[in-house]
What does this fold into?
Amino acid sequence: MTQDVCSHRNNVHGSDKALLYKVGIYGWRKRCLYFFVLLLMILILINLALTIWILKVMNFTIDGMGNLRITEKGIKVEGDSEFLQPLYAKEIQSKPGRPLFLQSSRNVSVNVLSSNKQLLTQLTTGANGIQARGRMFEVKSGSGKLLFSADEQEVVVGADRLRVMGAEGAVFSKSLETPHVRAEPFKELRLESPTRSLLMEAPKGIQILAEAGDIQAICRNELRLESKDGEISLDARRIRLMRLPEGKASSSSSSSGTRPTVYEVCVCPNGRLFLSQAGTGSTCQISNNICL
It folds into this structure.
């Protein structure tokens, strides 16, 4: 009985030993796994080192990156900055007490667009100059006074004085409308039309005044003073008519040698003036050969 039990136990243990399996990675698989784990750790260390290096070079901080700082009022850039793509911002201002400097190798353009992306106002500075495009252009002083304004209808100069420093003065291809034309102190005022006529017209009169000098009117052909409804008055202590032709007086009306020569001004029917040696009577009829 005892021998049967012992033989039965030996058979059970032998069958259990035959059913056991080995669990795990052995051989070349184990070596490959360790190699991949080591390679992954090396890559992690390299990636960590590169990340720390980038953070150090780019100067990343809690407030921003490099010269770029993020504040409560917006983004603050210290030093020179270069933008390779368009910059969209609500407001760009410099540091208090420092100028705002914009630099470009070609041009700088400031555009104002509508909600439909249509161009409303444009300011362009380039190699050819400064161009402004818009419905109106205004220049005002610090107190808000209008100094200059331009639109499609007119150009307004609101300054107290308009000074033209060019040697040729001011050139107007059309008419000039102004209530007052005055030269600078101790300077001459000259109105000249080299190739055309000079016309001064006013509904209530024209006043030409020189308080400390002379007035000269010079032309090449004719100088005409015309008043349709009124009169022309020459009020002066002396009125001199230079280079008037002199008529020939008759022998009966000639003055004696002891008497000084006196002339009278005569008027022809066509309006021409000439001088005639005065006699006891009028000599204009006698010296009328100038009127022919």
Summary: The longest helix spans residues 28-57. The mean pLDDT is 78. The helical segments are 2-19, 28-57. The CA atoms of residues 34 and 140 lie 79 Å apart.
